[in-house]
Specification:
Number of domains of chain A: 4
Pathway (chains A, B): Purine metabolism; IMP biosynthesis via de novo pathway; 5-amino-1-(5-phospho-D-ribosyl)imidazole-4-carboxylate from 5-amino-1-(5-phospho-D-ribosyl)imidazole (carboxylase route): step 1/1
CATH superfamily of the largest domain in chain A: ATP-grasp fold, B domain
Radius of gyration of chain A: 28 Å
Organism (chains A, B): Absidia repens
Oligomer: homodimer
GO molecular function, one term (chains A, B): metal ion binding
Strand content of chain A: 15-25%
Distance between the termini of chain A: 78 Å
Number of strands of chain A: 23
InterPro entries (chains A, B): Ade2_fungi/plant, ATP-grasp, ATP-grasp_carboxylate-amine, ATP_grasp_subdomain_1, PreATP-grasp_dom_sf, PurE_ClassI, PurE_dom, PurK
Keywords (chains A, B): ATP-binding, Decarboxylase, Lyase, Nucleotide-binding, Purine biosynthesis
CATH topology of the largest domain in chain A: D-amino Acid Aminotransferase, Chain A, domain 1
């Protein structure tokens, strides 16, 4: 497919998953890492790999002599050597400049600010006095951070008060430091962005990351946040990556603040833990796209091919391999779960030993599937996930609530995530336009609109969204609801409204559920069960009528 | 995860994909095959593999000495040795009996018939006279087949007349023969069935296979045939596999005849070409489930995780590797396409060099995605695929056709596969029950029902399917259609009908498309485009009215 040989600095799990992708494309890959049985080397027997550190100049030059393109699976490499190799005509992706800029988080921040990327306030803190000044400038708590060699929360210290300054500086004494204003985030998001050697950029869906002890714990794809926030996060990530020369895949971690604005936290110039899910859940994995990008081959689609996915990391609990296999044993019995173990021979607390990706037909189902695996990892922790609504229920006025409430109960009973609000065609026409126009991008799959009298809401919303809109004619004080019914149902050719019976929000909810069920087998099954239960209830009455007789019924 | 070491007889592409699955589970695998760089050995560097033939007794015994469980990636192994090893307490999956029975296709047929599995008539043909007798018994054409060493059409001969007998017997002179009655099939189906060491059985979805020169060319998953046929095929396959002792995954190939009955064609006791698609399209791949099965671990879900998938084999065209890479280069630019190359160093005509699996949000999209890849393989061949309908359109009487036709045109214009038929609630009540009850299993996602007057059809169908049902009130000769409208819309709580305007089958079709679009982004996009076009048309009229003035309009 491509005759250029790839050399990877680092042979851990990220290198391993790159090799997996390379094998499928018949690409040749040589690994530089110390262990002879490094995870990546275990699944590549056609090449003579190099045993040595990925910051050892001689070894890096030896690797460069064997391959056509150099890349990294970790940013803490000897970037100076990469830079010198680049000057001598070697191809290095991402570029040595990019690795150099990113591996020093303070330099990274300066670079991002210079390119207009929003980040939390920060300042250099070469000495105790400047750390104190940071406390005064940013207030407490603030973050004291190592400029270099920081990963998985190592090199970060939350300074809660002036008393913390001394211990913080001692804990981080090995590297130069800088201070960062505390970002009061409501969620953490991440995006994998891939940049081809020719400059083309594609980004994967925005995911939500949940950390445990500062190490990535869960990755929820797609992130269950409003579509507008997702688009903003994607733009921030893409703009940031556009500012770095060279090709490859980049992990961009971000904060969402209370006001839904985005701050970029940090960037990894390589495949990233928050993109593991792409192997099972996307049309092309981050690993394959990294290879395509650095070899200047066409990029693969970054779209999700399944509706939902959650990844959970398998960390060592102790030195016992058995303990870390426990959640994996659990996962064997979970539909949609794929286990990735990295072939590491020694287990220790906090070491990344593998990960499990669970996919499902909906986020509801994926979350349920994940539950027994999570329970094996952290038996006493609840991690409730707020799901993005799939059904939007709106009504022209709060006077319609008594009617609409009955349908809302049905949605709740079926466990369908939904939202319920007032949107009036006549009193809040602009709100209605905004609601209808954004509904599909926000992740809704159907809209239920209740209205009485002139009852314009369902039809007007249907005119501004491609989603199915269900209309509930609400009975007013005159005309028995026939006015609402005719107004809702008699739409002109081109714009349909799915009209249900007068005041029958139950049927509107059931119709929305049937619409979801058309593509989500679990929900179709729920509907079948519901219909069977209804039949059962009538049959019970049949029995009762038979038993007690019609006169005593 | 499991400390038992697995030994595989054969290190080709099937072994390679087994190894890929094994690595992810930290399972140890040793390969027996002649080339030192056999495809499976290329991606496994932690073990000392064995160089030797998979029918070499000494080598098989050497392998057995190194591992806990023996398995095969090809059935043409020395099954006698496997049998002797089994007697000495070695674990062999599938069992030596199963391999022995299946590797002789005549013995396989006898076994299947003895277990009540439907197969085409066949007879043993030890000599010329018996081949002639077969011609008389079965008529021409019939199949003359090698009992052993047959694969990819090799060992089969279509005997079209008595004159063909001599050349057929010469062509197949190396092995004993049997004759088989010609099965006038309309489609070929296949199912992967996995059987765990403890006897548990799960089967993958039924796929359609399309052969070219007797070699598997395309695998369409799920098969685009009626749900009732799929269930029948799955039952035949599962019953067949239940009759074989031992564990593992089995490929079952079947014929569908004109009358929709199923004949089993043949079985492979191992992962199979028709199951490659499971890697990208199912929750657990056939390779991983093969390993789980033989190690007596819980089986993984066999369900599809994407709506549709088509696999195409990459065969060598000549000795040129470039030529076989051509469709792969094409695939790099195709969303949803995953390329699998097997690392084979030498290319030759007809050799399986790799495969490409395309997945998509719908079979329509998947087929469109596949087109440029297929064109690179066979530029002058059209392979039209009949798609399973997604929308069912029914009406109480052919007198409703003029009204319903308009909606049908819309579905056609959007490229939605649909069916249109007459189902009368009052004149064909049992047909209506059958239609409604089977709709979801047949693959429909929405039903449009048109009816006039009493107009019971939409509501009655809705009462017997969990799918969304759209009702079109057809205007009769009296009451202006209000009778139909009220009859359709005023459904009792529990059973919704999505009612559209009187006679407005356009809106019914558009609503069905919106329902599909709720889960299929490509269709949602089509709906957005349609709405934009409508807006454009009105804007053109606005312009015209402005230009020519209202008096001259």
């Amino acid at each position: 497919m491509n005759s250029q040989k790839v050399g990877i600095l680092g042979g851990g799990q990220l290198g391993r998953m790159m090799v997996e992708a390379a094998s499928r494309l018949n690409l040749e890959v040589v690994i530089l890492d110390s262990p002879l049985d490094a995870p990546a080397k275990q699944i590549e027997s056609t090449q003579e790999h190099i045993a040595g550190a990925f910051n050892d100049e001689t070894k890096i030059r030896e690797l460069a002599g064997k391959v056509d393109v150099l890349t990294v699976e970790i940013e803490h490499v000897n970037a100076g050597v990469l830079s010198s190799l680049e000057k001598n005509g070697h191809v290095v992706h991402p570029s040595a400049f990019t690795v150099l800029t990113i591996q020093d988080k303070f330099v990274q921040k300066n670079h991002l600010v210079a390119h207009g990327v929003p980040v939390a306030d920060y300042m250099e803190t070469p000495d105790r006095a400047s750390v104190e000044a940071a406390g005064q400038k940013f207030g407490y708590p603030f973050m004291l951070k190592s400029k270099t060699m920081a990963y998985d929360g190592k090199g970060n210290y939350v300074v809660k008060s002036e008393q913390d300054i001394q211990p913080a500086m001692e804990a981080l004494s090995k590297t130069p430091l800088y201070a960062e204003k505390w970002a009061p985030f409501t969620k953490e998001l991440a995006v994998m962005v891939v940049r081809r050697a020719n400059g083309e950029i594609r980004s994967y869906p925005v995911v939500e990351t949940i950390h445990k002890n500062s190490i990535c714990h869960l990755v929820i794809a797609p992130a269950q946040v409003d579509g507008a926030v997702l688009r903003r996060a994607q733009a921030v990530a893409e703009n940031a990556i556009k500012s770095f020369p060279g090709a490859g895949v980049f992990g961009v971690e971000m904060f969402v603040l209370e006001d839904e604005s985005i701050l970029l936290n940090e960037i990894a110039p390589r495949p990233h833990n928050s993109g593991h899910y792409t192997i099972e859940a996307c049309e092309t994995s981050q690993y394959e796209n990294h290879l395509r990008a650095i070899l200047d081959m066409p990029l693969g689609s970054t779209a999700m091919k399944v509706p939902a996915s959650i990844m959970v990391n398998i960390l060592g609990e102790s030195e016992s391999m058995e303990e870390c296999y426990r959640p994996c044993q659990e996962a064997l019995a979970v539909d949609g779960a794929t286990i990735h173990l990295y072939g590491k021979k020694a287990c220790r607390a906090g070491r990344k030993m593998g990960h499990i990706t669970v996919v499902g037909e909906s986020m509801m189902q994926t979350q349920q599937r994940l539950a027994p695996i999570l329970k094996a990892i952290e038996p006493n922790v609840e991690r409730p996930l707020t799901l993005r609504p799939l059904v939007g229920m709106i009504m022209g006025s709060d006077s319609d609530l008594p009617v609409m409430k009955v349908g809302a109960q049905i949605l709740k009973q079926f466990g369908i995530p939904f939202e319920l609000s007032i949107v009036s065609a006549h009193r809040t026409p602009l709100r209605m336009v905004e609601y209808a126009k954004s509904a599909a991008q926000r992740g809704l799959m159907a809209i239920i609109a209740g209205a009485g009298g002139a009852a314009h809401l369902p039809g007007m919303v249907a005119a501004m969204t491609p989603l199915p809109v269900i209309g509930v004619p609400v009975k007013g004080s005159s005309l028995d609801g026939v006015d609402s019914l005719h107004s809702i149902v008699q739409m002109p050719r081109g714009i349909p409204v799915a009209t249900v019976a007068i005041n029958n929000s139950t049927n509107a909810a059931l119709l929305a559920i049937r619409i979801l069920g058309a593509s989500i087998p679990g929900i179709l099954k729920q509907m079948e069960d519901y219909m069977e239960k209804m039949e059962g209830e009538v049959m019970t009455k049949v029995g009762k009528l038979d038993n007690v007789g019609w006169e005593n019924y």
